[in-house]
């Protein structure tokens, strides 16, 4: 029994086959035709290989593995920040202030003893980072890094930095170890507060703490926590209220 010839296959049909523009039924007809014409089949195979090579050549290069990992961490941090902003819009600011007042006054389940709240752990780590930053300024073998790349910092640590006053000049930036993990220490020269450092670290738990002051014999400290990140400003003494105001302005940029 003779096999009937399929409908005539034209050059445009072959081009459409190479460009993957045919239906399954049409592709089957072309492939049956190519099976009976090895010379055409060889040419089509070359065209398919050329199309594949062109597609590979024109495709954007893949990200190196370190950059791919950083991009994934940045995406996770952005999702976490978006969730936090939604939560902050739901919780009234007045409620946050009221809860902080109850904790400070020692009322209800939020009560904290003076000894427990005296020196929060991020404050202790911030003081250590501040002292190390000042030490680095006097060391020739430890050059300062004044180029602050907040995007790279966030990708590496998951910490979202606030927007700083344009009058603050960055003197040094470094990743500093702490009991909670890597933190970011930035040393500034400021026109009103003198030399100020900002230390940010993931605190190990979710909380919302409005800016508050903490003093030592040598330093004034203003700190707050927003979500999982604690932020601490450290300056020399006699700058309590201006430092607290600066912390409040930094907090406002994180909403």
TrEMBL record:
Gene3D superfamilies: Anti-sigma factor, zinc-finger domain. This is Anti-sigma factor. InterPro entries: Anti_sigma_zinc_sf, Znf_put. Residues 14-35 form the Putative zinc-finger domain.
């Amino acid at each position: 029994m003779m096999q009937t010839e399929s409908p005539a296959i034209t050059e445009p049909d072959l081009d459409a086959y190479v460009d993957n523009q045919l239906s399954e039924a049409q592709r089957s007809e072309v492939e049956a035709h190519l099976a009976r014409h090895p010379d055409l089949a060889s040419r089509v195979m070359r065209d398919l290989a050329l199309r594949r090579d062109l597609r590979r050549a024109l495709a954007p290069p893949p990200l190196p593995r370190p950059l791919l990992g950083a991009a994934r961490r940045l995406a996770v941090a952005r999702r976490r920040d978006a969730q936090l902003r939604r939560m902050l819009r739901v919780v009234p600011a007045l409620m946050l202030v009221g809860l902080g007042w109850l904790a400070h006054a020692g009322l209800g389940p939020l009560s904290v003893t003076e000894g427990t709240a005296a020196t929060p752990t991020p404050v202790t780590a911030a003081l250590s980072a501040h002292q190390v930053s000042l030490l680095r300024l006097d060391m020739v073998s430890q050059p300062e890094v004044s180029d602050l790349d907040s995007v790279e910092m966030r990708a590496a640590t998951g910490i979202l930095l606030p927007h700083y006053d344009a009058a603050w000049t960055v003197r040094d930036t470094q990743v500093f170890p702490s009991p909670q993990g890597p933190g970011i220490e930035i040393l500034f020269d400021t026109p009103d507060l003198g030399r100020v450092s900002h230390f940010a670290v993931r605190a190990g738990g979710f909380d919302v703490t409005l800016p508050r002051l903490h003093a030592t014999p040598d330093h004034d400290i203003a700190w707050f926590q927003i979500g999982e990140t604690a932020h601490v400003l450290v300056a020399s003494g006699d700058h309590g209220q201006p430092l607290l105001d600066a912390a409040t302005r930094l907090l406002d940029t994180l909403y």
